[in-house]
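Folds abound. A case:
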Amino acid sequence: MRLFPVHEMVRRLGLSLPEDAWPDYLARFHAERPGVIQEVLGRSLAGQRNPYVWLARSVSRTAGSVVDVRCGAGALTRELVEEGRQVIGIEDSADELAAARAAGPESITWMYGEVGDLPLASSSVDAVVTSMGMVTASDPRVLLDEAARVLRPGGSFACMAPTVRPMAPSLARQAAEFTLRVGSTPSFPGALELKLTDLLAQRGLRKVEDARACYVFTVHDVEDADLIINAMYLPGSTPSRRRSARDWLVRRAVARGQVELPIPMRRVVALKDPEPASGIA
């Protein structure tokens, strides 16, 4: 199998729609399939842990108020619940937000809001997290601006997004075969592999962690195959190519017992600069 350098993989996994076409595509996708991405990620494992557990663990147990931006149907938001903690999920898809509210729990505050205009006061929360916001926002700088605004000094920002590595060679071959059949790589409005250190620092956020892990979604049958395909942004694919990919997954799962598809993820954590000490030096 031909191997591409990381920057070429990033290009191939980047934009495949004109920038102005993404809002309509995302609106239709999430109206038709609320919660589907989170169902897939919730079943994707590295050991016994899914990506939402991994991201939730980046939030300090002492954080009294945590906001999940672009919370979707609330899978990550629910992982953030702790006794005595205020948890807020903010989403700009009415259908995803309705699914989140229906699933609860009542202890979570669900709010409609755009990533560039969070309905929160400045310096009002201890932590901001987002599981897909940095790649679904057309301009992640807008999300970072708002995260920095609503965070209290000393608060934390944590984000997670699909990436291009790590990926074991055997899983990479499986992914390449699947991509060949579906006729498109999963794509996002925003670029993957962002160089976040400077973007964060420009907003008073100091990067303290940049980690990666590869999760695996296991396909056993046609229901699993349909689920994983329906959870992907595939604007370059066609219904016939998606059916072909589904049939290939099912045939291989029957022959081998299961098919493992890789979902490499990146987690970045940053801290907001504390306020300078007052008084005369």
Remarks:
- The radius of gyration is 19 Å.
- The beta strands are 65-69, 86-91, 108-112, 125-130, 151-162, 205-219, 259-272.
- The longest strand covers residues 205-219.
